[in-house]
Specification:
CATH architecture of the largest domain: Sandwich
Structural class: alpha+beta
Number of domains: 3
Oligomer: single chain
Distance between the termini: 159 Å
CATH superfamily of the largest domain: Galactose-binding domain-like
CATH topology of the largest domain: Jelly Rolls
Number of strands: 8
Strand content: 15-25%
Strand order of the largest sheet: 1-8-3-6
Helix content: 25-40%
Length: 383
């Protein structure tokens, strides 16, 4: 029977060394694991209050607005008493826009100083303002996210919009004030759909305006002569320059008129006459200028001793004779044109007289002394 050879001393020493090294590595690994586990546990349990706060966050404290409502408002406005038909204890102050209509009423009462009522406990003004501001801010912020534009109603054109539409469509300037009545106004505006009604009489005016405008747009060489009169406003001062007229002139008026067809038209300016038909300012000479599309077509002189005496002796025929000097017949192409009538301005120096003249001399219809003024201008044609 054979026996296994006994290990030598060297082999035994080698095995012992390997066991020792293996155990050292194992202990080192366990130490590292335990050390890491210790650090992990110490980090998790270093502050037990922090751990508790992370796992179960605390509820937010009651808002100051809620405290004010509970103390001063809910005592009367609750489900049991419902004072004034209002209950606030069931409303969610954290979601004010949900009951915006109710909170709007609360804001009006608080801002007006009506709530809490006289004789009841109430906070200081700053606290009430803070409550109202909180409600207003919450409602406004929600309204900005979902704006309410209102409802669209049937909207007719007012007369200004009607005139603009005609101009844009047909390049035709129309004096809508002579064709259509003024529109009703609301809140300072005349284009509010709610008040722009359509009555039978207004519809007739619009139909009449459409008939006249369509006739001008289409045009006809067989059109008969007609007379258009344009008057100067009675409250307009004619001492100074009028916008739209040539520089160096005073008073008068500028007319934007649509001439229906090519032809000749008669332009007839008329001077203003006071109560007894006397033309003012004839004691000195004056020059009246007529312009067409910015170009001078007539310059007529009137006034002086001869005209003044004739006007005093025979006011009506003398005045008619003076007005005839301003009449002019000119060829015109169809379409809109600008007509101007004004006086050449003599001087802008201030008078040294003690009694200064009225800026609007028509408020005195009797005195014959002053400056001549344009009363109206007529356009007749075509011929």
């Amino acid at each position: 029977m054979r026996h296994a050879p006994r290990p030598s001393a060297e082999s035994l020493a080698t095995k012992a060394e390997s066991r020792l090294l293996g155990g050292h590595r194992l202990r080192k690994g366990l130490f590292g694991f335990l050390a890491g586990l210790t650090l992990l546990l110490s980090g998790a349990t270093d502050d037990p209050r922090a751990a508790g706060s992370q796992s179960a966050p605390s509820l937010p404290a009651a808002s100051p607005e809620k405290a004010v409502l509970d103390k001063y408002c809910v005592t009367c406005h609750n489900q049991r008493t419902r004072t004034g038909g209002l209950s606030l204890d069931t409303l969610n102050l954290a979601n004010v826009p949900e009951d915006a209509a109710v909170w709007e009423k609360v804001v009006r009462k608080v801002r007006g100083g009506m709530m809490p009522p006289v004789g009841m406990p109430r906070p200081d003004r700053a606290t009430l303002d803070q409550l109202a501001s909180h409600l207003e801010t919450s409602i406004d912020a929600a309204a900005l996210k979902v704006p309410t534009t209102g409802r669209r109603v049937l909207h007719r054109l007012n007369r200004s919009e009607y005139g603009n539409a005609v101009r844009d469509l047909f390049a035709l300037e129309v004096d809508v004030t002579s064709l259509l009545p003024p529109d009703e106004e609301a809140y300072g505006f005349d284009n509010i759909a709610d008040v722009l009604g359509v009555s039978p009489s207004l519809m007739e005016r619009y139909l009449s305006a459409a008939w006249k405008i369509s006739s001008q747009v289409v045009g006809s060489v067989k059109i008969t002569p007609s007379l258009e009169t344009f008057r100067v406003r009675g409250d307009l001062s004619q001492h100074d320059h009028v916008e739209g007229l040539p520089i160096g002139t005073r008073g008068g008026l500028v007319v934007r008129h649509n001439f229906p067809v090519d032809g000749e038209y008669v332009i007839s300016p008329k001077l203003y006459r006071e109560t007894v038909n006397i033309i003012r300012g004839l004691e000195t000479p004056h020059d009246l200028e007529v312009t067409f599309d910015g170009e001078r077509v007539l310059l007529a002189r009137f006034g002086g001793a001869e005209d003044e005496i004739a006007n005093y002796l025979n006011p009506t025929p003398a005045g008619d004779e003076i007005d005839k000097r301003f009449q002019i017949r000119i060829p015109v192409k169809a379409g809109p044109h600008s007509l101007g009538v004004a006086f050449l301005k003599k001087s802008s120096a201030t008078t040294l007289e003690l009694l200064q003249p009225f800026q609007r001399e028509r408020i005195d219809p009797i005195t014959p002394v002053g400056i001549p003024e344009v009363d109206k201008v007529t356009i007749e044609g075509p011929f």
